[in-house]
Amino acid sequence: MELKVLALDGKEAGKVTLSKEIFGLEPRADLIQRCINWQLARRQAGTHKTKDRGEVARTGKKMYGQKGTGGARHGSQRVNLFRGGGRSFGPVVRSHATDLPKKVRALALRHALSAKAKDGGLVIIDKASVNEGKTKLLAGHFGKLGWSNALIVDGQEIEQNFGRAARNIPNIDVLPVQGINVYDILRRKTLVLTKAALDALEARFK
Questions:
Q1: Do 144 and 173 share a domain, yes or no?
Q2: Number of domains in the chain
Q3: 155-179: per-residue pLDDT in tens?
Protein backbone atom coordinates (compact mmCIF):
# COMPACT_ATOMS: atom_id res chain seq x y z
CA MET A 1 0.00 0.00 0.00
CA GLU A 2 1.48 3.33 -1.10
CA LEU A 3 0.58 6.76 0.28
CA LYS A 4 1.68 10.29 -0.50
CA VAL A 5 3.78 12.10 2.08
CA LEU A 6 2.56 15.66 2.67
CA ALA A 7 4.18 18.73 4.14
CA LEU A 8 2.26 21.00 6.51
CA ASP A 9 1.76 23.51 3.70
CA GLY A 10 -0.12 20.84 1.72
CA LYS A 11 2.61 20.14 -0.84
CA GLU A 12 3.63 16.60 -1.71
CA ALA A 13 6.93 15.56 -0.14
CA GLY A 14 7.35 12.08 -1.57
CA LYS A 15 5.72 8.68 -1.20
CA VAL A 16 5.91 5.89 1.32
CA THR A 17 5.03 2.19 1.22
CA LEU A 18 3.03 0.96 4.22
CA SER A 19 3.57 -2.47 5.74
CA LYS A 20 0.71 -4.93 5.12
CA GLU A 21 1.32 -6.52 8.53
CA ILE A 22 0.46 -3.21 10.25
CA PHE A 23 -1.81 -1.29 7.89
CA GLY A 24 -3.19 -4.01 5.61
CA LEU A 25 -5.14 -6.24 8.01
CA GLU A 26 -8.89 -6.78 7.80
CA PRO A 27 -10.09 -4.90 10.93
CA ARG A 28 -11.67 -7.02 13.65
CA ALA A 29 -14.23 -5.09 15.69
CA ASP A 30 -14.13 -7.60 18.57
CA LEU A 31 -10.40 -7.07 19.19
CA ILE A 32 -10.72 -3.31 18.99
CA GLN A 33 -13.69 -3.32 21.38
CA ARG A 34 -11.85 -5.48 23.92
CA CYS A 35 -8.89 -3.11 23.91
CA ILE A 36 -11.04 0.02 24.25
CA ASN A 37 -12.98 -1.52 27.15
CA TRP A 38 -9.64 -2.40 28.80
CA GLN A 39 -8.35 1.17 28.34
CA LEU A 40 -11.47 2.88 29.66
CA ALA A 41 -11.72 0.52 32.64
CA ARG A 42 -8.14 1.38 33.64
CA ARG A 43 -8.97 5.09 33.42
CA GLN A 44 -11.83 4.90 35.92
CA ALA A 45 -10.91 6.42 39.27
CA GLY A 46 -12.90 3.92 41.34
CA THR A 47 -13.23 6.42 44.19
CA HIS A 48 -17.01 6.01 44.60
CA LYS A 49 -17.95 5.10 48.17
CA THR A 50 -21.04 4.90 50.41
CA LYS A 51 -21.23 4.32 54.15
CA ASP A 52 -22.37 0.97 55.46
CA ARG A 53 -24.06 0.39 58.84
CA GLY A 54 -20.72 0.32 60.64
CA GLU A 55 -19.75 3.80 59.39
CA VAL A 56 -22.85 5.98 59.82
CA ALA A 57 -22.98 8.33 62.80
CA ARG A 58 -26.03 7.00 64.62
CA THR A 59 -26.55 5.24 67.92
CA GLY A 60 -26.47 1.47 68.08
CA LYS A 61 -28.78 1.37 71.11
CA LYS A 62 -31.90 -0.78 70.81
CA MET A 63 -34.72 1.47 69.68
CA TYR A 64 -37.41 0.14 71.99
CA GLY A 65 -38.32 -2.97 73.89
CA GLN A 66 -38.54 -6.29 72.13
CA LYS A 67 -42.09 -6.95 73.26
CA GLY A 68 -45.25 -5.08 74.04
CA THR A 69 -45.14 -2.35 71.38
CA GLY A 70 -47.17 -4.07 68.69
CA GLY A 71 -44.52 -3.08 66.16
CA ALA A 72 -41.77 -4.97 64.43
CA ARG A 73 -38.69 -6.09 66.34
CA HIS A 74 -35.90 -3.60 65.78
CA GLY A 75 -32.42 -3.17 67.22
CA SER A 76 -29.90 -0.65 65.86
CA GLN A 77 -31.00 2.49 63.99
CA ARG A 78 -27.99 2.17 61.69
CA VAL A 79 -29.55 -0.54 59.53
CA ASN A 80 -30.50 0.18 55.94
CA LEU A 81 -34.24 0.08 56.70
CA PHE A 82 -34.19 3.54 58.26
CA ARG A 83 -33.57 6.98 56.81
CA GLY A 84 -29.99 7.94 57.65
CA GLY A 85 -28.93 4.34 58.07
CA GLY A 86 -26.14 2.58 56.21
CA ARG A 87 -26.46 1.40 52.62
CA SER A 88 -26.34 -2.31 51.84
CA PHE A 89 -24.00 -3.49 49.08
CA GLY A 90 -23.07 0.08 48.09
CA PRO A 91 -20.04 0.92 45.94
CA VAL A 92 -16.62 0.75 47.56
CA VAL A 93 -13.22 2.15 46.56
CA ARG A 94 -11.72 -0.31 44.08
CA SER A 95 -9.85 -0.66 40.84
CA HIS A 96 -11.88 -1.30 37.69
CA ALA A 97 -8.82 -2.49 35.76
CA THR A 98 -9.00 -5.83 33.97
CA ASP A 99 -6.30 -7.97 32.40
CA LEU A 100 -5.65 -8.07 28.67
CA PRO A 101 -2.65 -9.97 27.25
CA LYS A 102 0.08 -7.81 25.73
CA LYS A 103 -0.17 -9.70 22.42
CA VAL A 104 -3.89 -8.94 22.18
CA ARG A 105 -3.25 -5.23 22.85
CA ALA A 106 -0.56 -5.13 20.17
CA LEU A 107 -2.84 -6.91 17.69
CA ALA A 108 -5.71 -4.53 18.48
CA LEU A 109 -3.43 -1.55 17.78
CA ARG A 110 -2.51 -2.98 14.38
CA HIS A 111 -6.19 -3.56 13.60
CA ALA A 112 -7.01 0.03 14.59
CA LEU A 113 -4.26 1.33 12.30
CA SER A 114 -5.54 -0.91 9.51
CA ALA A 115 -9.08 0.39 10.05
CA LYS A 116 -7.88 3.98 9.59
CA ALA A 117 -5.93 3.04 6.47
CA LYS A 118 -8.95 1.21 5.04
CA ASP A 119 -11.44 4.06 5.52
CA GLY A 120 -9.07 6.69 4.13
CA GLY A 121 -8.47 8.41 7.46
CA LEU A 122 -4.69 7.90 7.47
CA VAL A 123 -2.32 10.73 6.48
CA ILE A 124 1.49 10.69 6.42
CA ILE A 125 3.46 13.94 6.82
CA ASP A 126 7.20 14.47 6.59
CA LYS A 127 7.52 16.18 9.99
CA ALA A 128 5.45 17.96 12.63
CA SER A 129 7.34 21.16 13.30
CA VAL A 130 6.79 24.90 12.91
CA ASN A 131 9.09 27.90 13.24
CA GLU A 132 6.81 29.70 15.70
CA GLY A 133 4.58 28.29 18.42
CA LYS A 134 1.57 30.29 17.21
CA THR A 135 -1.83 28.61 17.33
CA LYS A 136 -3.32 30.82 14.60
CA LEU A 137 -0.55 29.92 12.17
CA LEU A 138 -0.89 26.18 12.75
CA ALA A 139 -4.70 26.32 12.65
CA GLY A 140 -4.38 27.89 9.20
CA HIS A 141 -2.27 24.94 8.00
CA PHE A 142 -4.79 22.48 9.43
CA GLY A 143 -7.65 24.33 7.74
CA LYS A 144 -5.96 24.04 4.33
CA LEU A 145 -5.37 20.34 4.90
CA GLY A 146 -8.95 19.78 6.14
CA TRP A 147 -7.96 18.53 9.59
CA SER A 148 -10.75 19.56 11.94
CA ASN A 149 -10.71 16.41 14.05
CA ALA A 150 -7.34 14.67 14.12
CA LEU A 151 -4.78 12.74 16.15
CA ILE A 152 -1.20 13.67 15.23
CA VAL A 153 1.49 11.18 16.23
CA ASP A 154 5.13 12.29 16.12
CA GLY A 155 8.38 10.47 16.90
CA GLN A 156 9.98 9.93 20.31
CA GLU A 157 9.43 13.57 21.29
CA ILE A 158 6.98 16.25 20.18
CA GLU A 159 8.61 19.35 18.71
CA GLN A 160 8.16 22.11 21.31
CA ASN A 161 6.74 24.85 19.07
CA PHE A 162 4.35 22.44 17.36
CA GLY A 163 3.06 21.06 20.66
CA ARG A 164 2.57 24.56 22.07
CA ALA A 165 0.71 25.75 18.98
CA ALA A 166 -1.52 22.66 18.72
CA ARG A 167 -2.64 22.37 22.34
CA ASN A 168 -5.21 25.19 22.05
CA ILE A 169 -6.86 23.87 18.88
CA PRO A 170 -10.10 22.00 19.68
CA ASN A 171 -10.44 18.35 18.59
CA ILE A 172 -6.71 18.09 17.83
CA ASP A 173 -4.56 15.70 19.87
CA VAL A 174 -0.77 15.41 19.63
CA LEU A 175 1.05 12.36 21.03
CA PRO A 176 4.57 10.92 20.88
CA VAL A 177 4.71 7.52 19.20
CA GLN A 178 5.04 5.64 22.50
CA GLY A 179 1.67 7.09 23.57
CA ILE A 180 -0.30 5.87 20.54
CA ASN A 181 -3.36 3.87 21.58
CA VAL A 182 -6.52 2.32 20.13
CA TYR A 183 -9.02 4.62 21.84
CA ASP A 184 -7.40 7.88 20.70
CA ILE A 185 -6.99 6.56 17.15
CA LEU A 186 -10.67 5.76 16.80
CA ARG A 187 -12.08 8.81 18.59
CA ARG A 188 -10.58 11.14 15.97
CA LYS A 189 -11.60 11.27 12.32
CA THR A 190 -8.07 11.57 10.90
CA LEU A 191 -4.88 9.83 12.01
CA VAL A 192 -1.75 11.80 11.06
CA LEU A 193 1.60 10.03 11.33
CA THR A 194 4.96 11.64 10.81
CA LYS A 195 7.65 9.67 8.99
CA ALA A 196 9.47 9.29 12.32
CA ALA A 197 6.33 7.79 13.90
CA LEU A 198 5.84 5.47 10.93
CA ASP A 199 9.44 4.21 11.19
CA ALA A 200 9.05 3.67 14.95
CA LEU A 201 5.82 1.69 14.47
CA GLU A 202 7.36 -0.52 11.81
CA ALA A 203 10.37 -1.16 14.05
CA ARG A 204 8.07 -1.96 16.96
CA PHE A 205 6.03 -4.54 15.06
CA LYS A 206 8.87 -6.04 13.03
A1: yes
A2: 2
A3: 889 999 999 999 999 999 999 999 9
